[in-house]
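hi! just following up on the protien thing from before. the input was this:
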Amino acid sequence: MGLLTMTGTLDLSQFWPDGNSDADTAKVLLAPNNPFTFQAHIGVPSAPTNVFNGASVRGIAKKEVIDQQNQVTVRFQGIDAPELHFPPHQRRQHFGEFSTDKLRVFLQGLQQDPLPCRVVTHVASPNDVFDMFGRFVGDIIVMRGAQEINLNLWLAEQGLAFPSLYTSMSIAEMNAVIQPSDAARARGKGIWANRAFTQRIGTLDKTLVFRRPPAAVQPDAGPVIFPKFFRRLSTWQDAKAKGKTTTTTLKAFLANERPPDQFLLTQDVLASGVTAAQVHNLAEAINAQNRILRAPKEMVFTEKPSRLLDKNGKPVTSF
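and the predicted 3d structure came back as:
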């Protein structure tokens, strides 16, 4: 694994309630000179790379890596904040606004706007960098004086996001997220507060939708399930409304999905690695009483594939 670094700035007005960004996705305006550098391994210097210039990702759809405003969309690795505007109906969860606003206020306290940042990720090839939505998956690092702040871990330790582990992460990266999240849960912070986090799926509240900016910040508290299940609950309900499924439970809906959503048990991954761990259908994580059996940190999800292509439509295979 090498270390890829992207350098740029965050426009703080992008975050809700001033803008549309939520607490685990952000747009980074690229630095004017050598915004991407790659260090092949420890002990060798980082070198500029231009492989992303004009490149696109083919996943759910075709998406340019760098948009017309010279920005790259970043998905915060290892965490999942409560939904703020899940498409197509822009549904949100309790704490979706709360988490985003707390992040915005923290960043504003650093007293720089736009705010310089670095986005880092450990990868073997350029094709490992972007998810199926064309988002750069990494950790965003900002400075508070001389101190580096990893925003992914800050969100976890403040109880503003759930740990969300993927097979693309190293064991060290998984543990780095689990530890501050465990501490936040022990203190009942944010999403872990009393009567907040729940493993009971319940009924989808269709009245909770995105409040478009500019919006006044209001108390935003209530039961919140792991967002990965919320998104599938919303998708299932939409499929039922359109007559596309006759399943009567989310568990049955997930069991019938093709290809199925899959996960590994974190304890198996930590003990024997990704390749040796047993693969489970996500339906197995829900019982007959409509309750999620696994805590967020107990599941490691498989990343759906995407392809990185250069401006001529050829696969990008090296830095």
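The chain has a mean pLDDT of 96.
The longest strand covers residues 2-10.
cheers
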